[in-house]
Input
Amino acid sequence: MAVDKYPLKEVMDVKQRRVEEAEKVLRDKIQALEKEKDKLAQKEAERDKVVQHMRDKLAQLRAEMDHGSSIPKIQQMKSYLKICQERVVVEQKKVDEQKKMVEQAIAAVNAARAELNQKRLEVDKLATHKKEWTQEMRKEEEIEQGKEMDEIGSVIFMGQLRNKKMEKE
Output
């Protein structure tokens, strides 16, 4: 009877849709985090490549110095090494900036996860309320049916009493 008509059904549906939207947002934030991590890996690889190039040039300079090359050639190699060091610094800055982007993406994922948990908690509270409400409505319905049965029983009993009285008369 009244058990099927939960008064907060629309509210529960809205909250459930919000949970689904929060799940979608969380998935999107996780995908964005993965993209940022991929970018970080690329920038670290680029930095490592530049660092390796600088090490190679440093080894080449040491070999030239040990070999006894001319001073202009050694100075040219030293100035190129400075350029390589500057490139390493630039690449390291890119890596550091990308690490910050990854940290921001992690914070966004954590915030989305917390929001999703909050919305799920709201739905769970409503589900618990619905369960309790349904049980209460069933009890009230049983009481009401009991009263109706008592009335029917009373009417039948009164009818039987009348019939007996009529038979006696």
User: Anything to note?
Assistant: The chain is about 95% helix and 0% strand.
